[in-house]
Queue: 3 jobs
Job 1
Amino acid sequence: MSPTRLAAAGWGVGLHVTLTALGAGPLGIDQPLAYLIPAALAVLGPRTSGRAGPRDAIRPAPAGPERAHRGNRLPRWVQLACEAAGWYVFAAVGEPGLSGVGGPGLSTWLAAALGAVTAIAAITVLTRRGLSARPAARRRRRVACGLVVAPLAVALAVTAARHHHTVLLAAWTGVSLLMLVVAVVTLTRGQYGWQLPERVHHVDLTDIAPPRHRVSLIVPAREEPVLGRTLTQILAGDYPESLVEIVVMVSHDEVDRATREIAEQIARRHPNVRVVAPEGSRRSKPLSLEDARQHCTGDLVGIVDAESLIAPGLLTYVNTLASRQPDVGIFQGGVQLMNVRGPDRADQATGRDGAGAAGPRAVLRRLDTDASWWRARNCLEYYIWFMSRLRFQARARFIPLGGNTVFIRRDVLDRLGGWDVACLTEDCDLGVRASVAGVRTIVFYHPELTTREETPESLTKLVVQRTRWMMGFLQVLFKGDWRLLPGARQRLMAAEMLAMPLFQAVAGVLLPVSLVLTLFLTAPTGLVIVFWLPMGATVMAVFTEQAAFREFADAYDLDVGRWDSVRLVLSAPLYQLALSVAAVRAAGRLLRGRLEWEKTSHSGAHHGVGRVSLEGVS
Amino acid sequence: MVAWLAAHARAHRQSLVLLAVLLPVVAVIHGVNFDGWPGRVTDDEGTYAAQAYSMQYWNRIAHYTYWYDHPFGGWLLIAIYTKLTDGFHRAPTAVTAARELMFWLHLVSCVLLYRLGRLLGLRRFFAAFALLAYSLSPLGLWYQRMAFLDNIAVMWLLAAFTAAASPRRSVGAAALAGTFMAFSFWSKETTLLFLPGLYVLLRQHRDPRNWRFVRRNFAGCLIGICAIYILYAAAKNELFEGPGHVSLEWAVRWQLFERAPSGSVLDSGSDTYNVVRSWLDLDPYLVLAGIAAAVPLLALRRLRVVAVLLLVQFGFIFRDGYLPNPYVTAMLPFAALCVAGLLDMALPRRALPLQTGRPLQTGRPAWLGMLWAMVRRGVVGAAVVGAVTAVTLDWTPKIHTALTRDAGAPSRDATRWFLANLRDHGTVVTDDIAWTDLVIAGRRPLPVWFYKLDLDPQVQAQFPNGWRDVDYLMMGKPPDSVLAEVPLVAEALRHSVVLKSFGNGEIEIRRVVPPGCRADLPPERCEHRASPRRRTPSHT
C-alpha cells in the first residue's frame, strides 16, 4: 500500500469523523443522520480535485502519469454500499441516547471513527483488488450493492416519513435557492453585453484590413430549395472571390437531387464552388462537416447553413479580425432569427392545401402553424444569446459554439480533430473541446454582420429542434470532455450550462408548483418568501428582456409596437411550457437511446423581413 | 481581483490619503463617550434595541405584536451586528450595543458622502469639507450617535446615490442603486421621498447605449426587494384589515393620514415648533447654510438633485403633518453637500481659463477675467475662514460636551439598582430602554413595556385586575399627552410611591401600592393577590 493511498485513506477517515462531530454537535443534527452527511458527500462529491479526465478516456485503462490524478474510480454504487456498511457500524456502536447537549460525546467520536474506518477500508480493498468488467459480474455486483444499501434506505425512508413536513420544507427550500441562483446567473449573463456602455458597440466596421486570409466556407445542404439564394448571396459579398472557396455538401441520394442540381449549376459558373456528394445511407450535419473538412484548403474554415443569409461584409470583417488578432483561433459571428411576427395571413391562404377544412385536426394545425406568439420570443432568444451570452462565455473561456457563421482557423480545427460525427450538437461539442485546448474565441455581433435566419415553421418544429439541442447538450455533458477544463470555475460553468436546457425546462414546471405549495404547506413566513424568490427573479428577467427587445427592434429597424411587448411578456410562461415539453422529450429519448437526427426544415420566411434591404438576394 | 484593487487604490491615492487622515478624527469625535451623550432621551432607541433582541433570541420580528410601524430591516441589521459581536451580552446596556453599530454606520456614511461629493464634481478639498461639516455638526453628533432607524436608512440612501452617480454607468451599478434604495426603504419607509431624486440622478448620469437596461434593472431590483415586504404581510395574512389581527393596510393608512399631526412649525406652542427649535439650539449653521446654498445651486445641473432634495425636505416641515424628531438626520448630508458644492462652484478652477481659453471666447479682456477670478477666490476664502471661525466658536463647546458628559448614567444606574435591590417576582412596567436590559439580566416574569399595557390586547389580557397587577414602575414621568393615551399606566402612577429617583427624576423606580397593600411588603404578600395572578407570557 503506497503512502499516498494511506494518506488519502487517513484524509477520508478524518473528514468523516470531523463532519460527523460537527453535525452532531454544533449543528444539532440527529446523530444517525449526522454521519450520513460526510457519507453522502463522499459518494456524490467530485472524485478528483483538479483536472479530471473525460470518462470515455478512462474505460480503456490508461497507463502512465494520467492514472495518478484520477483518484478513486470505484463505481458510485459500490462506493455507496461501502459507505452504507460504515453507517451500520456507526449506528451499531454509537448510542444515540448518550450524545449530550454540550456536544458530541466520546461514543460519537468513537463510532464515527469506526464507521469511517470500515467504509474506507472496504473502498480501499475493493479498489486494490479491481472489479471485473464482465456484464454478468456487473449485474451481480449491482444486486449485492442494492442488498447492502436497502436497510439504510428503509431506515431513511422511515425517518423521512416521520418528519415528512420538515423534509419537504427543507427540500423545497433547497430547490428554491438553486433555482434562484440559476435565475440570477442567467439574468446577469444575459445582460453581459450591456453591462458597460462601451461594451455595446464592440464592432468597428470602419477598420478594414487588406484581404489576406483564404476562407473555405462549408455549406451543408439537404433538401434545401433556398440553396441557390444562399450561394448567390455569399458570392455577392465584398470579399475578393479568389480568396473564397465554397464547399457545398449535398447527399448522393435521390431525395436530394433537386438541391444537388442547384449546387452544380452554380458550381459550373463559379470555379471556386465545389459540390461534394459523398455516398452513404445516413447523412447528418456533423458527418457532412467532417467530410467537407478534407476538401477545405483555406486558412479559415467557416460554416454557413444552407438556409441562412450571410451579410455582405461578413468575410471582410472576419479577415480583419483574423489579421488583427493572431492569437484568436475561433471567430463566432451572430445569427439572428428575423420573423418576429410570423407569415402574413394572405401568404398562408395561398400556400396551404385544405386550409379551409374544418374539424379538430384543422384547428390543431392552425394553432400549431399559424400561431406566432412565440416567434418574437424565439428571435429575442437568439439576440440575447449572440449579443450577450456567448460573448460572456467567450470571455469566461468556456463556450459552446453556434453551428452557423462560425470561422475556425484550419490548423486549430485540425488540431482539435474536427467534428464529432456522433454528436447531435457538434457545434457545442467543438466549442467545449476548443475551450479545453485553450483556444481563444471571439464573438462579434453587429446588425450589419449577422446571418439572418427564420424561426421554425411551427411550434411543433420548434419543440423538435429544442429536443435535439437538449439531447445534444446532454450528450456533450455525459461525454465528459468538459471535465478536462483547466479551472474549477470553468468546469462548474460547463456543467451548469450543458445541463441548463434540462434545468430550465424543469424550472418551468417547478416555479408554479413552488407558488402553489406556499398555499398548502404551513411554512414559516421566511420560507414562504424564499419559495417566492425564484419567481421574482424570473419576473425580473422577463422585465429586462423588454430592454433587449427594444434594442433588437432598433438595431434592425423593425416596426414593433406596444402589443409586441405585451405579447412578449404574456408568451413567457407558454414558451417555457414548450421548452418543458422539449425537455421531457429529450430526456425520454435519451433514456430510450434514440439518437436519431431530427432535422428542422425551412421555407424562407425571413427573406424580406424588416426595412433593411438585403441587396444581392435574387 | 488584487490587481484590480491595487489599480483602484493607485487611481484614488490622494483621496485615500485624505480619508485616512479625516476618518480617525471623525472616529474619535464620534466614538469617544458615544454612550454617554446624548443621554437616554427617547424611548425609540430602546424600542429598536428590544426588537433587535427579540429577533436575535426569540426569532420574532418584535418583542410585542409587530404591527407594521416600520419595515424591520433596520433592526434586522442591528440584530445581525449584535449576533456577530455578541453585542447584547458584551455591551453595558442594550442601547449601547445598538449605538456601536451607529458608530460604524457613521464612518461608512462619511466615506460614501465624500465619494458622492467627488462623483458630483466637487474637488477633494470641498468633498472633505462636506464630510467634516456633516460629521462634526453638533446636530449630526446628537442624532447620528443615537440608535435611530434614520441613520441606517441614510447610509443606504447615500450608498444608493453613490451607485447611481457611478462613472462606469454600468447595469450592475444601477441594480445596486435600486438594491440600496430598497434597503433604505426596508430601514425606514419615509426615504421613498428621495426616490424621484435618485431616479433623476441616475438619468443625469445615463449613457444612451445601455440606458434601457440600466433603467429596468434599477426599477426591478428596487420594486422586487420592496415587494418582499408586501409579500411578508400577505404570507402572514396581514395585508388587509380584518378582525383579530394587525394589518399593513391599517398601518400605512395610520402613518399617512390618521397619525395626529404635531402642529405647525409657525405656532410656537406646537410640538413641531419645539422639535425644530431643539435642532436650531444644537446647531443653526449647517442646515440653514445648506438651505441658503441650495437656492443658487438649482442653477447648476450636477448638484441640482441634491439641492432640490434638501429644499423638498425643508418644505415638508411646513406641511403641518407629523414631524418625527430625527427627521433632520436625512437633511444633514444634503445640507453639507450643498454648502460645499456652492463653495466649490464659486471658487474658480485653476486650470480652467488656460485650458478652454474662455476669456478670449467671451471677448472680455483678460484682466477682467483674472479680476473676476480673484474676487471669487477672495469670497470663497472669506467664506471658508468665516465659517470655520464661527463654527469653531459655536461647535467647540458642544463637541466638548459630547466628548465628556455622561448623560446616560441615570438610566444605567437605575437598571443596576433595580436588579440589585428588587429580587422578588413582582411585575415591572418599564420604558423600552430598561426593558431589554432587564430581560437580558434574566428578570422574570418578563417586564412589560408601558405602552403595551394599554394598547396591546394580548398584554392587557395578562392583567385581569388592571393596574393593580402592576408591582413596579420604572420610567421617567411621561408627558401628559402620552399619559392620556395610556390610562392604566397613568392610574398605576397615581397609586405609586417613589422608591428611588435617578438624575433629578429623569428616571424613577416606583412601587405601585394598591388599596390593602403597603410599600414595605413584598408584592406576593399583598391582599389583593387572592385573585388569579397575572399569566406569564408564552415565550419565557
Note: The CA atoms of residues 20 and 35 of chain A lie 5 Å apart.
Job 2
Amino acid sequence: MSPETITPDQKIPPTNACALSIAAVFDPVFTRLERCADLVERYAARPNSVADRAELDSVVETEVRRQFADSTGMVIGAGFVSAPHFLGWHLAWWLSGQNPASSELPATGIRHLETVEDPRDESFRDYTALEWWRVPVQTGRRHITGPYVDYLCTDEYTLTLTLPVYRDGTDLIGVVGIDLSVDEIERGLVPRLCAGGVPVTIINASGRVVVSTDTHLATGALLRLPGLSERLSEVATSAPVLLVNGAHTFQWCGQTGLAVVAGLSPTGD
Amino acid sequence: MPQSIRVGSGTRAAIFAPLDGVGRAELVLQRLTDAIVLGVLHDGERLPSEAELARQLGVATVTAREALEILRRNKLVHTKRGRDGGSFVTFAGRGVNDLQDERLLAWSRVQVRDLGVHYSAIAGLAAELAADRASAADMDNLERILDRTDAATAAAARRGQGTFRLEVAALSQSARLVREELRLQAEFGSLLWLSLREPLRRERCRAVQRETVAALAAEDGARARQLTVTQITESIEWLIEAKSLLEQKGMSTMTGITTTANIIAPLPTGAHA
C-alpha cells in the first residue's frame, strides 16, 4: 500500500500514546539533569565565595556517580561544562568505565574525561559552538543532540541531553548534560512505538531518525517528507497534526525536542 | 558529548585501545612508532608507565617493556629516572623522513596497494553515506573545520586531512566506519599521506576537500565517494613511485620527487560523466 492510497475513512495513525510514552523515557533523565543543575546553581550562589574547579568537580562527581548507578548501562557520560566566564574553559565530565582489557569484562567504575582547556593549545576546541551547548543556551530550554558518533570520547553512537545552568536566574554559567547509548535507547523505545499498526519513527528536531520500526529507515538517516521541515521549525505544540501528504501524523513528544512520525515511509526512493 | 573539543584525541584513544592477536610487542612498537612519526604523540610528551601502558593496551607488562626498550633504542623515547621520571617522546623532527622512508621500504607494493583498497572501502563508503545523512548544520560545521585547517606544513596538512576524513566518517553516522577510520589513521596515517610533504600535493588535497564538501552539500554521494577514492589512489601511487625512487637511488622521498604528471591533473569529474 502506498501512502497515496489512504482513504478518508481510514483513521489518522494515533500517536498520542506513543508521544507520551517516549516523553516518559526522557523526562526522568531530564529530572536528574535538573537536580544536577540545581546543585551547580546552589554552589555558584554561595555568598562571599569564589567558584573553584576542584570543589565544583567533586560536587558534580558525586551526583554523576548516582546517575551512572541508576541508569542500568544507558548512561555513558555525564557532567557539567562551564561557561568560559565562570570557571574558564572547563569540563567536569565523566565516562562510564569500560574495562580496558575487554568490553565483556565488568566495567571498572567511571573515569574523568581529560580535555585540552587551554585556548592557546592547538588541539583546543571552542565547545560553545557545538550543538549540545549552543541550542540550550539560545533557547534556555532542555535539548537533545544526536544521534551522533562521539568519536572523541567513547566511539559510541550517542544521544546527548543538555540543560542550561544559570546563576541568580539570568547569568549563564554552563550546561549540565548526559550522554545516552543509542543501542540502549533503542531497546527502551522500540516496545513503545505503536500507532495502530503503521510504522512509527522517532526523529530529533533536525529530522534525524533516532529509532524507527520502519525497515527502510536507519537510525541516523534524515527523514525526508514533504512539509516535515516546516513542522520541525514551528514552536512545539502538543497536538498531533497531519503532514501535507495526508499520510503521516506528526507529533512532538512533550518538551523533549523529539517528535514521532507515524505512517508508511515514502516509497520508490 | 564533547564532540570535536579535541582534534586528534580520538586518534589518541585508538592508539591506546586494546590490541588483540599475536606479535603483540611488535604491534605495540608499530603503533607507538607510528603515533610518534605521525605527530599524534608530541615531542617531549610523557608516555604512560609500563604498567599503565600494558593495562591500556591489554598486553603483559613485559610486552610493553619490550616495546619501550626498542623505542628507546630507536631514539624515539628517552627515559628519565626519579620523581619526575618516565618515558618521554624525543623526536625533534630529526629522522622523521628517514623513519617514514624505512617504513615505506619495508612494505611491498602489494601491501601498499592493498592498504589503499582497504582505506578506499572505508573512507569511500563513509563519504557516500555522509552525503545522504549530513544536515545543513553538519555542513556548516565541516566548512568551519576546513576554514580553520592550516596546510602550510606537511604535518599540519596531514593532521588537517586526518581531521577532515574523521569528520566525514562521523557524518556517515556509522560507529563501525568511524572506528575503522580511526584505526587506519592511527596505524597507517603517517604512511598514507606521505605525499603531503609536497606543497603542490597539499594544495591539491585542499581542493579535493573543498570539492568533497560541495558534493556532500549537493547530496551527491557518488561524487563524494569518487573524489575520496581517487584521492586515496593518487596518494598510493605517489607512495609506489616514491618507493621505486628509494629503491633505485636510496634517495629520500623528501627531495626525490618534486613533480609528477598527475599532481596538476584536473579533479575527477562527475561520477556520471
Note: Chain A has two domains: 3-16+192-262, 22-184.
Job 3
Amino acid sequence: MSSTHGTTKTAGAVVGPSAPERSGPTGDSPQVRAVRRRVQELLPAKTVITDHARLRTYECDGLAHYRVTPALAVLADSVDDVATTVRICAEERVPFVARGSGTGLSGGALPRADGVLIVMSRMRAIREVSAEDQRAVVEPGVINLDVTKAAAAHGYYYAPDPSSQQICSIGGNVAENSGGAHCLKYGFTSNHVTGAEFVAPDGSVVELGGRALDAPGYDLLGTVIGSEGTLGIATAVTVRLTRTPEHVVTVLAGFPSTDDAGAATSAIIGAGIVPAAIEMMDALAIEAAEAAVHCNYPEGAGAVLVVELDGPEVEVRQEFDQVERLCRDNGAFAFRVANDDVERALIWRGRKSAFAAVGRISPDYIVQDGVIPRTSLPKVLRAIAELSASSAVRVANVFHAGDGNLHPLVLFDDSEEGQGEAAEEISGKILDLCIEAGGSITGEHGVGMDKSAYMPRMFSDADLDTMQMVRCAFDPNNISNPGKIFPTPRLCGEVPGRHKGEHPLAKSGIAEIF
Amino acid sequence: MTTDALAAAASGQSIDLPTPAFDEYRPPSAALVGDCVHCGFCLPSCPTYVLWGEEMDSPRGRIDLMKQGLEGDPLTDSMVGHFDACLGCMACVTACPSGVQYDRLIETTRAQVERRHQRTRRDKALRGAIFALFPYPRRLRALRGPLRGWQRIGGDRLLRRTGLLERIAPSLAAMERLAPRLGKAERLPERTAAIGTRRATVGMLTGCVQREFFPAVNAATVRVLAAEGCDVVVPAKQGCCGALSVHNGREPEALRFARALIDSFENAGVEWVVVNAAGCGSTMKEYAELLRDDPAYAVRAVAFATKVRDVSEILVELGPVATRHPLPITAAYHDACHLAHAQGVRAQPRALLNGIPGLQLREIADPAICCGSAGIYNVLFPEPARELGDRKAANVLATGAELLVTANPGCLMQVAASVERAGETIALAHTVEVLDASIQGRPVASLTGGGTSS
Amino acid sequence: MSVETVAGPALASACDDVREAVDGDSVDGVPPGHVARPASTDETAGLLRTAAELDLAVVARGAGTKLTWGTPPERVDLVLDLSRMDAVLDHAAGDLVAVAQAGCPIDRLQETLAAAGQRLAIDGTLPGTTLGGGIATNSSGPRRMLNGTFRDLMIGTTVVRADGVIAKSGGRVVKNVAGYDLGKLMTGSFGTLGVVTEAVFRLHPLPTASQVLAVDVRDATTAAALVAAVVHSDVVPTAVEVDWPAGVVAVLLEGTEQGVDSRTAATRTLLTGAGASTVDIAEQLPPWWGHHPEGVLLKLTCSLSAVGGLLQEAARQGVAVRGSAGAGVLYGGLPADAEVAAAVTVLRAFCLAAGGSLVVLAAPADVRSTVDVWGPVPALELMRAVKGQFDPHRRLSPGRFVGGI
C-alpha cells in the first residue's frame, strides 16, 4: 500500500475540475509577500506560521483527497487577530480561508496556495453559560461536545450533534449548518444559534443576531450559517441551550433487510411520532462497525435501526411501545433497549464510528452525503443496490433514515487499476438518484470544494446567480474562501447606489420625463 | 523534494538536494501512515493539541509530518520539535476509529530522529544525563531523600549544567512530602511462596523508579500475589526493561535492555511475568516487535511477550481468593496512559478496587488525557507537563476523593507535584497497595498516611 | 407619454388581472398606480420585469394585514396582489412536507394539513394572514417557543427578484445544506429583497390533546418566577404566554392525552411551587391568546431572564404586553395619545441592555414621526449592501425597512 491509500475521496472529481493532489505553486506573489510581512509585523510571532513543514499539516481538512499548502497560516487567538488578518487580506486582495477543527468532509476548509489560512482552533474559550437565558457564548474553536459538557450541570445541552461532535468546532458547525443524528427532531445549527460576532471580508467586526431572538433587519445570521466560510468568519457564537430531556430511550432493532427497516421507519413517522433520531445501517456497514468497535449488533441483520425517543417520560414510554410494535410488525427479529448511558453509548458507538470504521473493511472509500424525501428510501436504496451489483463496487449504507439523509460509503482499493474511477462514478450516480428523487446533493457535509460541480444539477444558473448576489454583498472582491460552493464565481461589479442616470424608458425612447 | 528545490531544478541551477527525513532502516511504515483518513477524532485525546490547538502538535498532524518525510522532505528542526513534543501517551490510538497504529509510527520515527537528527548540544547533554540516570536503579538511589540527594548529586557537573536536577527536583520533593510511607528500599526475597493452594508461578519486574522510589509498591505486589495463590519469583539480576529508551527512540539501548531482561526471566521457571508499572508493561508486551530482526532473540521475545501481564490483569484473570477487608474510603482511579491506552487495561483495576468492601470509586473527568508525566517528558518539557499536571490535578481534586489510585510511578509523582502546587493534598497509592491494605486488614490510615493528608 | 400611461398596458401584457388602484389599495397611506393579481410565479416575474423596465416601485400584498408595519414605502407604483396564488400545491404527508403559494392564507393551509393529522407549527396571529405576509414579516405567535418561526420551518423558497428573475433555494427535503439559504434572507425582509411566490415547509404531527394552564398573578416578580419554573423544567411546554398588566401567565401543553395529563399535573405543581395561588386548567385557549395588544404596536425582545423586568418597566410606561415569555418575544400596545416616544425610549433602553430590541411595528403616521421605528440595527452596512445587490434601483418596497432600505 502506498502512502496515499486510505484517503477519503468523494465524487467531485468525476465532473469537477480536478483538484491538485499536492500543493500547487506557493503563490508567493507580491501581494502574498505583503500580507506575510504585514501580519508578521502586527501579530505575535507564534501566531503566524510560515514554516513549510508546519504549513503542510494544514493542507487538508477531513477530506484528505484535496491537498493545498497555504501560503501562510494564522493561528488566531482573538477577534483582533482575525480582523487584522482579514483586513490586510482585503487591502492586498489576497484570499483567506477559515478553518476550525479541520474535520469537514467536503473540502470546505481546503487552503489556497495563494492565500492565508486562518485557523480558529485556538479560540476555544467558553465565555459564558447562562442557563437562565438558555444561552452560551462560545468562541468558534470550542468543540461541539464541550458546549454540552459545560451546560450539563445546569440541566441543559447543545442540541446539534454531528457524528464528529467530539472534535468538530462550533465555528465549523456554523459554516456548515451542521445537523447530526438528532436534527430530525431538534433541527440544525441555524435553529440553535442566535447571535455571532462576525468578521466581514473587509475586516470589519459586526454583530449578527443577538442574545434575544428576532433581531431587527435582515436575517444575515441565518444567511451566514451554512455559507461555508464564503461570507466571513464568526469569532464568537451565541448558542441556544436546550433542556436535557426528562427521559431517553434508545432501541436497536435488527431487520432482515433495508426494505423492512425502511418500512418500519415510515410506519413510525406515519404514526405521528417524531423520534429524536432514526438511524439505519445496512449489513456491510454493520460489518465494518463490528470490526472497529465491537458494538454487538444483532447477528445476521440485513439492516439495523437505531431509534432514540426523548422527552417527557409518559410520552416516551407510550411512543416506545408503539415503536416496538411497529418494528416487529415490519419484520424486526431483534429488539434491544439501552437501559442506561453505557448501553446507549454502545449502541451509538457503532453508528457514530461507522465512517472511519469502514477503513477496517476496505483500503479506500468515498463517503457520500445525499438527501431524498424519506418516502423514496426503499426505491433509492434498491437503485443503489442495483448500481452496486452491476458495477461490482461495494456500497455500505449508513444514514439518517428519519430525514432521508443517506451516507452511502463506496468501497474500493485504489491499488487496483480502475477501482477508484469506478467508485467515483457510482458515487456520482448516487447523487443523481438523490436529485431525481427531489432531494439534495448534501444534507450535512456541505458543498465545499467537493461538490461545487454538482450545484448546477440541483440549481439553475439564476438560482446560483442569486445566491452569489449575497456573496457579492458581503465579499465583492471574492476573497473569503473563494472557489467553494459555486462552480463559477459571479463578477460582482460596481455596487450601484441610488437610482441615477437616465430613465430606461426615456433612454429607449418610449417615454419622456415631464 | 520541496517545491523550491523543484523550481531550482527546473531552472537548471545546481542545487543541494535536501537529505530525506528517513533512511531505509525501519522508516515509519507508509502503509500505516496511509491508514489515517484525517478524520480528526484523535485531536481531543491528544495532550499537546489540548494545550496548543495546533495541527502539527496533534497525532494527525504528526502523521502528516511523517508523510512529508516519506515523500522526501527533510527532517527539519521544526518537524523534530513536533515529534519530540508528543508525550507518547497513545490516547490517540484508543480514540482512532480507523485503527491507525500511531504507537508504532511514532516509535519508528523517533528512532530515525535519534539516529539522523543533529540535536543541539544542550538538548543532547540533557538527554544524555537522563539516560545515564533513570534506567539505573543504583544511580537513582542516590537521589532519594531531598537533602542527601541534593548534596550528593549537586556536585555532579553534568547534572548541574543540564539543569536536570532542577527539572526533576520539584517532583521528587513533592513525592517525599506527599508520600510519607516512602521508606527504605527493602530487598525482596527471590522467591515468595503462595499462601494456600498454589495457582500460578509468576515472575515480577521490580522496575527502576518503582524499585527506588516506591519499594512499598513492589512489596505490596508480592504480598497480594502470594495471598492470591502465586509463587512469586523476583530475579535478583534484573535491570531496566528499556521502556524509556524505546519511547525516546534510543533503539540500540532499548534492545540491550530488552535482551538482558529476557535473559533474566527466561530460566526463572515462571508462567507469567507480572509488572506493576504501566510504562514497563506496555514495552515488555512489545518485545516481539522490538526484537523481530534479532535472529538470536526474535523467537524468545515472542515467548516472553506473551507471558507479560499487568498485575491487575493477572489478579482479575485468576479471580480473588483472599478475603477483602473493608476500607471505608473514597478513591479516584487515574488511568495511566501506558496501561489504559497502550495495554487497554481499564476495567481490571476498577474491578479490583470495586471488589473492596466500603471503597467508593470515583471517576476523574477527561480520563483519557495524559497527566503530563509521560516517562521523562516532564523532565524534557517541564512547561507543558506542568500545565497538563495542573489540569489533571484540578480534575482529580474535583472528585473530592480522599485517595488517588494509579498504577504508574511517574503518574503518582506528577500528580502529587501538581496537587501540591494547587495548594491541596491528596493521599496517593498504587492499586496493589490498596488491595494489600484490604487483604491484610490494615486501616484506611495506612493509605492516607494517618491524617497527614486530606 | 407618461410612465403612468405606459404602465397600464405594459403591465397588462404581463398579467391578465391588472387594474388601476383605488383608495383601499394605499400602502400605509401611499397610493399606488396599479394593482396586479398574478396567477403564477411566471406572471409575477413578468410583472416585475415590466416594473423594472418602467422603474415602477412595487409592494407585494397578501391579505394586507401588516402593510402598516414598519415604515411606509417612499413610493408605490404597483401593488402585487398575490391573492390569486393561494393554492396548496402539494402535501407530502409521508415526508412531513408541504408546498404552498405565498397568497395562501395560513388558516387554509392548516385545514388541508389537518386532514392528514399534520400542521405547520406556526400561528396565524392576524385573521386572514397569508404565508407570504407571514414570511415577509417573520410574524409568529405563542407556539414559536417550541417550534420556532417561518425562518425555522421554511425549507425551500421560490422568489422573484426585482429584475424579474426567478430563483429557488433550499428544496423539498428538511435536511439540506446545498447553497445559501435565501429563504432566511427573505424572511422578515418586508418585501424589500424580492417577492416570495412559493415556499416549502416542514410539518409536525397534530397533537391529539392539549391543555392550557392559566395563573392570575399580580406582581411581575412572581410572573417571572412562574415563567422560569416552567421554562427550566421537563414539561416541554409548546407555549408560555403572558398578558400584562392583566396579570396572566398561561402555559400550553400539547401531545398525547396521557402525556398531556401527566405534564399538566407536573406543571400545576411547578406553578404552585413558584407562587401561584390558583391554577385554571382548560382545553380552550384564553380569548386574548395570540392577539396583539391594542393601540400603537411594539415588538419587544429580551433575554429570558429579563422578561420579569420588562413586564415591570412596561407597566410603568403604561404599555400593555402580551406574548411569548418563554421565548422572550413580546408585543406591546399603548394608546396613540400616550407619551409614545418616551415609552419607546425607556423600553428600548431596557431591551437593548437585555440583549434584545424594540421595534415600533405599527403606529399612526403622526406618532411614528416622533419615534425611531427600528432602533439601532447592527450590521446595517452589510444589509444595505445586500439590498444594493438584490434591488439596486430600490424598486421593492423602498423605505419600508431598517435604515431606510
Note: Residues 146-157, 178-182, 450-454 of chain B have pLDDT under 50 and may be disordered.
